[in-house]
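Risk register update: the risk of archive-format incompatibility is retired. Evidence:
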Amino acid sequence: MGQSSSSCSCNNGHEIYRPIIIGKNSGDIDGDDDLTLSLPDECLGSVFGKLGCLDRNSCSLVCKRWKCVDSKSRNRLVLLARSELSPCLPSLLSRFNTVSVLSLKCSRKLFSIDDAALSRIPIFLPFLKKLKLKGCIHISDDGLHAFSLHHPPLLTKLSFASCGFGAKGLNSLLSNCPSLQDLTLKRLRKLDATSSTPASSLWPGALNVDGGDVSNDHHNNINAVVAGDANKKEKDAHNYYYKRSLRLERLCLKDLHNARLFIPLILSASSSIKTLIVCRSSGNWDRVLETSLHGKTTSISEIQMENVQMGDAGLLAISSSCPDLQLLYLSRTTDCTDDGLSAIANSCRKLRKLHIDAWSRFGSRTIGDEGVFSIANKCSQLQEVVLMGIPIAIPSLNALASNCPGLERLALCNTDSVQDSEMAFIAAKFLALKKLCIKNCPNVSKSGIEAVGRGCPNLVKLKVKRCKGVTQAMVSRLRFQRSSLVVSLDAGSMLFDSGGISLLASAVNEEEQGTATAMTNTNSSRSAAAAAATTVAATHVICSSRGALLLRSKFESALQLGRRRRPTEDNAS
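Archived output:
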């Protein structure tokens, strides 16, 4: 394509590239000429941005100009961070020095990059905004400390998963990264193993800006600082480090242990944090929230708690400290009841999204219809409600319809209380509803879905999953009646027609015959194959979408095996 004659114009924009037209007529262009020479570097970089990773890597090998444009237009770089990358990482990063998002991933079974390689990243990437480390178990606290001493001015987001450092390195990052706003921690086993004084191990400022250790007298007793019983020296240290982490707006903790470790971190960022996500992290989170949010009015607008030990005490702490709460996500929290949800309803009047997956431990009390009723009466700005495992009744639905005029998304899942009467009520009262999801509600039949089709004038999407009373024929009729309505049906069942069953029976039969050649009684194998085919024909397998796809792939492979073997036997005969 004539790339050998191309030159790079990335350093200055004074050179003008024009295609060389060769031929008798002006329209005759030699195939060896590069028509991209007339494009500015910005346009060519935009074209490269539309390509996939492999295609873009191939384009960088075409010519010097394309390599230069590719280097200057890349914003995101994902590298396999094995130990072999450490010596060549500086030259690689100097080539892509405009990258703002860097992701380093490695398997925990392999040797990852070391501390020296990590510490030089801010030197070669001055515009770095997001750094993600996954599986880099050979990066220690010293590597994070050396990285933070460069004070990356634009670094706003950090994500660490399955790494080998602990509290000391995190303290250094919190102290030396002034623009940090988003912190995600996942599966940090060394952090989980921290003992002795866990309440102060994550205190933002356990390392000062210069990297030296602060005296333990400053933060040895967090409760004394909170209660105001510490001396003036301790209070000054608390105020200093409190100001150091004011910019932290999002904190995500997943698959961690010992919840007490994060009391000082949440406490110091309570005035600036807006999103708190805790997922599958053990410990008493009631105590964490009570200690961290005690007596404060925070700006938290989103809280997600999933598979954690938390009850009404944690919900009371949230209700008293988060008046601006807009999203509450509770999934399998162990001890939350209607009382805690009523406290949220009384204090958090700005709530817009509510997701509840009710779950009771050993049959104890959990969130039910009463808590939903209190939320519907007090939170008039609700736009999205997802209820899983909650026996909701018509009075609660009536409260939602009358008090929440802006409710646009509603999902009712895993409950026997939702029947055709509730579906008819939703169709008649929820006039602003745009998206409706009904999942695993066995008492919903075609009459309830037809009622929704006749009502809900603003409905644009209806999703029905694992409702045995809803058929594909009824959904097709509903699509014909309301062409603008997108209807998604997933019955969660695998049924084959007679042709599919016969092919499957043939495949099973042939498989049994192949394995029974050394056996004298072949009639038993054939009877077993026929019984298996009969079982498949008579069984209605209820499963999720992912399970249905798995079963479909298994059955289709058996059908294809039968199709391939049948012509072979015909030719042999």
